[in-house]
TrEMBL record:
Pfam families: TM_HPP. This is HPP transmembrane region domain-containing protein. Residues 18-165 form the HPP transmembrane region domain. It comes from Paraburkholderia caffeinitolerans. The chain crosses the membrane at residues 24-43, 49-67, 135-157. Keywords: Membrane, Transmembrane, Transmembrane helix. InterPro entries: HPP (IPR007065), TM_HPP (IPR058581). Coiled coil: none annotated. PANTHER family: TRANSMEMBRANE PROTEIN DDB_G0269096-RELATED. The keyword rRNA processing does not apply. The keyword Transmembrane applies.
Length: 168
């Protein structure tokens, strides 16, 4: 899928607007489906399936699916790694702005080191320091929620673009 802001070469202005509008509408539809599904899971199971950073994950997954940051390894790995770091720092150092900043910095460096960079996941340590959840947060919403988003992305792009995702 082309970037919503880029038109294929050789396309006139009106056609370019249609391509962008179509891409934008597809991205919105995908984001709606993914967030609605995890929201429905949360409502039906009374479990916390939704993580604040998942909205930004949907921007990448459905708006820029070819981006390295939008691939399953990055979505799942980035979310899990940063939540693990946030929980670890909260447990070891307690709440506070300094351990929160250190957790965010370490999470960023570890995503880069492990090649699992997913920018929305960079907010997970901050979310953890604000909410102060238990270790179960690592499983739900983090791991299971990220896996569900990746699965929805795969199903969505398989239907819409006939198997164009993941691209790496």
């Amino acid at each position: 899928m082309s970037s919503p802001s880029a038109a294929p070469s050789g396309v006139d202005g009106a056609s370019a607007r249609r391509v962008r509008t179509g891409s934008i509408m597809l991205a919105g539809l995908g984001a709606f489906a993914a967030v609605a599904f995890v929201g429905m899971l949360a409502a039906k199971t009374s479990q916390p399936w939704v993580l604040g950073s998942f909205g930004a994950t949907c921007v990448l997954l459905f708006g820029f699916p070819a981006s390295p940051f939008s691939q399953p390894r990055n979505i799942v790995g980035g979310h899990v790694l940063t939540s693990l770091v946030g929980l670890l720092f909260l447990q070891l150092f307690g709440p506070g702005w300094l351990p929160m900043a250190a957790a965010a910095a370490c999470a960023t460096m570890l995503m880069m080191l492990t090649r699992t960079v997913h920018p929305p996941a960079g907010s997970n340590p901050v979310i953890i320091f604000l909410a102060q959840p238990s270790w179960s947060f690592l499983l739900l919403p983090t791991l299971l929620g990220a896996c569900v988003l990746a699965l929805i992305g795969w199903l969505y792009w398989t239907i819409v673009k006939r198997g164009s995702w993941p691209s790496r």
